[in-house]
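User: Show me a protein chain along with its predicted structure.
Assistant: Here is one chain, sequence first, then structure tokens.
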Amino acid sequence: MHKAVKIRSITEQIYEHLSNSIIEGIIRPGEKLLENDLSSQFGISRSPLRECFRILEGEGLVVIHPRRGVFVREFKSKDIENVFQVRAALEGLAASVAVQNIGKKEIGMFGHLIVEMEKALDKNDIKSFLGYNYTFHSIFIKLANNEVLERTLKNLGKGIWLRIAFLYYKSPSGLYVSNRMHKGILKAFEEKDSLAAKKIVEEHMEQAKEELISEINNTGHVPSYG
């Protein structure tokens, strides 16, 4: 029996292209997304493009100004503070609750992801590292088995979180500190220590937040690293 192949819509394809370009800093903060240019570039009408813009706005990656246009979102230190404050509290809770649902299979999955992150680290492959990191966090959030918690984290915006994470992991120490934290989280999971899991996840978030805010305070803007 043949497995069904999901055909992505034009909107989904354009969204993936634009979101990746924004997350990786190829399209820079403050840059205007021009409807005419993008319609010509992708050979599409404005309707799917505008739908894509609405999705990107919901993900926190762009700002739509009536009569002015669509602009890539620029982050200020307060934005970073707000995102990390909420994310740390919710992911810390997720990690502590997930402990009771983590068995040998899940421990193996986390261990495999850490190995893959180390390989990406050796190659300075930020994009792959980011993907493995996102999966690592997504797994224990799912294992918390709390639909309200999972939905709330999802509604914070995958796009905005990936953009901020990409900025952090492009910083000089981001990759190394992050992977050390992941090993600490895994150790807490192995030891069934919910308090330690919560504490390490919160420390992970706090360290990343402080590094990015320090960069803003020193340079006057969020690093683009594009």
